[in-house]
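Predict the 3D structure for this chain.
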Amino acid sequence: MNPLNEKVNAKIQEYLLNEDLWIGIGFGILKIIMIIIVAALIIRVGNITIQKVLSLRGKSPLRISERRENTLAKLLSNVLAYVVYFAALLMVLETMSLDVKALLAGAGIVGLAVGFGAQNLVRDIITGFFIIFEDQFSVGDVIRVGGFEGTVEEIGLRTTKIKSWTGELHILPNGSIVEVTNFSIHNSTAVVDINVAYESDIQHVEEVIRDLLRVLPAKYEDMAAVPELLGVHNFGPSEITLRVVCETAPMQHFYVSRMIRKEIKLVMDEHGIDIPFPRIVMYNRDAKDPSIGKGEQSGG
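Done. Predicted structure below.
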């Protein structure tokens, strides 16, 4: 064997069998594991602290809305995770004997160069900040953004997650959110049309419906006010249409509308008020009708 190779192999063997080397590697691995464990504990304790602080704030006279509390809780949890993981990464690199200061200086220069090409990312972050700062919408709100409509699952500094009615999760960059329709800020309005037959006594029907509407808010807590019967809304081919409107809690107008229809149907059955059905009048042009005088015409 070549004496040079033997010398190299001897040095490698001596290096690998060095007790101090493996002790240092072992301590380094243990330190990295401890850093990861401590980071996870900090995040866990931090999330619990955030929830406690927001719950205590909710009991104070100057409390913020529940929807805003949920938004702030998710946002603060995300920010806490980013900060802790970044600090943990720097500590791990330092444990591996890497020059963290040089890496940060180089990352700053690279970040400056990347920033010019990452304008969309910067725009997403700035837009996300203003969405949260201006409280345009919060977690749990039902919103419409462009062609997407659903419940806000999460708001971050870069993206917003919207869950549609059928279960799809849409992840939208905040910079693409230009126009937002929020259905959860103000009360909704339930509009219910009731059809009755022309033969019905309209005044009696209105009295029966008004008596019913007065007692409904005590039965359905989602009604923000006593439903109002506006009166006759339309004349149809075989029915008279009455309209009822009711102010409801946000996004509860569909449920309240169904309950009003159910209650009105029950009370109309109880008072013998007929629900109209389609009617068709057949006319035979060839048949002779003695009731039609000479020169008169009839159609149907």
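Residues 124 and 169 are 19 Å apart (CA to CA).
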